[in-house]
Structure formats: C-alpha cells, structure tokens
Amino acid sequence: MSVDVFLSESKIQERIEQLAKMINKDFAGEELYVIGVLNGAFMFTADLVRHLNMPVTIDFMSASSYGDSTESSGELKINLDIKVDIKDKNVLIVEDIVDTGLTMTILKKNFEARGPKSLKLASLLYKPARNTHKVNIDYLAFEIEDKFVIGYGLDFDGRYRELPYIGVYSAEDSQ
Ligand code: 5GP
Q1: Separation of 154 CA from ligand 1 center, angstroms?
Q2: Which of 125, 132, 157, 162 has the smallest count of CB within 10 Å of its CB?
Q3: Residues 164, 3: Cα–Cα separation, whole Å
Q4: Consecutive sets of 10 residues in the chain, 175 residues long: mean pLDDT of each?
Q5: DSSP 116
Q6: What is the pLDDT of residue 175?
C-alpha cells in the first residue's frame, strides 16, 4: 500500500489563500469567530486563519453524528464543546469534509440555536456523490469524486493526519 498525492500541498495552500480573500471581503470591518471541527479540520483551520485580516477568535469543537445516515434527522454527540459564547457573533465553522452532509446539517442546527449574528461554513472538501443531506457550504476549497482521502488533517484509523497534502491509497506495494 502506498499513498498517491491527490491534492498537492501547493494546490491546497493556493486555494486556501483564495478562500481567505473571500472571507476577508465578506467580513471586512467585522469580527469573526472561527470554530474548527476536530480532529480533521485542525490543519485547514490553522492555515486558513493565518490569512485572515479581521479580529478573529478561534475555538475548536469535536462532535459526531449518529443514527441512520439515510434519515433526515440524526443525533449530535458533542465530545468537546466550544468555550466561547457565539450569541450575536459572526461565526465561521471550519470542517474537513462534507460527505453525506449529516454531521454538518445537525451541527449547523445546534449552532443556529445559540443565536449567532451570522453562521457560515467553510469546508476543505465536498463529495457530491455521497451527499444525502443538502448543506450549504459558503466557502468550499475542493469538490472531489467519491474517493476515501487521507492527509492534511484527515485520517485512516487515526493515522496520516500529518501529511501536508491530500492523498488516496494506491494498491502499489511499497512502504
Ligand atoms: P458526513 O458528512 O457523512 O456526516 O461526515 C463527514 C465526516 O466523515 C468527516 O468529518 C470525516 O470525518 C468523515 N469522512 C468522510 N469522507 C471521508 C474521507 O474520504 N476520508 C476521511 N479520512 N474521512 C472522511
């Protein structure tokens, strides 16, 4: 098994700069609360905020969805919640990948209930082929085909998050 580069480090960084420009424009003169979703979005969040030029407050959360992913409702298990109060704040959720869309659908609902001034979503990746829950992604870096990807925060069994690029497994036998 080896890992093939699917999205290179330079391609990812270039796209993040473009997204940051859009966010800087949309929130010019405003404050922004950036909430990174652990563990997968830690690297994307860290790279994105480096290019933001408004006053930024950064926090992280960890949540998982459970229940039947084919149903329109699902339960959200919050493993680690944010410590900041987002009432009347501009909030940007930063996620690694929207796959079925279930996690983000219920996470956004949970955040809406906290009364933010605005709520936007940035996602590094989106897999339309597997989407069952339509979720609006305000800032999307890459739409990808239905492949299981690893690296740049994304894991396989806890591994490969440290890779600076996004990769896919190749059947080729090498270490
Ligand atoms: P969903 O959108 O289906 O509710 O779930 C999204 C979550 O599934 C992501 O946050 C991520 O943890 C996981 N996931 C979905 N597709 C992939 C993938 O291709 N690679 C990895 N490493 N995780 C994925």
Answers
A1: 8
A2: 157
A3: 12
A4: 92 98 98 98 98 98 72 77 97 96 94 98 96 94 96 96 93 57
A5: -
A6: 47
- Detail the DSSP E strand segments found in the chain: 2-7, 32-38, 56-66, 75-80, 90-98, 118-126, 139-143, 149-150, 166-170
What's the CA-to-centroid distance between 55 and ligand 1, angstroms? 30
The dihedral built from the CA positions of residue 147, 152, 153 and 155, taken in this order, carries a sign that is positive
Multiple choice CATH, 4-174, 3.40.50.2020, 2.40.50.140, 3.40.50.150, 3.40.605.10 = 3.40.50.2020
Is there an atom of ligand 1 within 6 Å of 98 CB?
yes
Alpha-carbon Rg for the chain, nearest whole angstrom, is 16
| Per-residue confidence (pLDDT) for residue 67, from 0 to 100 | 60
Contact 39, 15 (CB under 8 A): no
